[in-house]
Sequence to fold (233 residues):
Amino acid sequence: MEIVLYLFVVIFFLLLVALAYTIVKDFKEIVLGLINMCEPQLFRPITWVISPIWFIGYGLEKAFGWNIIEKYDDSDGLEKYPSTGNLKLYFSDGDKSIISKTSKKKAESLIRDFLEFCDGDLKFESFKIKSGQNVKIDCPNHITFYDFSILTQHFCNEITESWGIYKSSWLTYYSYSNKKTFHNIVGQTKDGQKFSIYTLDDLYKDQNLKLNQGLEVKAFDWKLINNGVQHGV
Fold:
């Protein structure tokens, strides 16, 4: 019995030594990892509380040139894309929908998550979900440009193959959350104009698509809007 106890003590001691060695050896990476875990994210409320740690790290990086913040393809994730012009958007005039390669159950869950944080007076029953090969969510007409952009971002963050679709008599576009930065949505109009939407802008007043033909925008199959979608499934 004493031998077994002795072995447990030795093993426990060795584990403590290994843990201490790992902490000392990778101390910098551990600290940087903890700082980046505090990056503010809209749909993760805990980050609202701990985000000051991330902003301190961000400030130190900008002030002293230290490499602290995790980069998105050489960007700190807060970059706002430049534009060559604005395309005025009369958002209330068009239909808004989300197309996502996911299940109806997952789509319902994401909508409920979104409704806990959205600014507008929106109800779950106002979102009409159609499912088939893809899921299409028809959004209520009174959803704001800001809320629709955040909903698009939320779906894209959870389901990569997701798009926000806007369609009116004079303008149709698709959009999705850009993975290279944290707050940019990019997309393209049906006539080929590439644009970005910066979600930290005041999207209640500034309802414009920021045009820039130099943006890298992935292609979208317009047939997905109706292909394989059935109502009420």
Notes: The chain has two domains: 2-64, 85-231. Residues 72-76 have pLDDT under 50 and may be disordered. Residues 2-64 form one domain. Residues 130 and 215 are 31 Å apart (CA to CA).
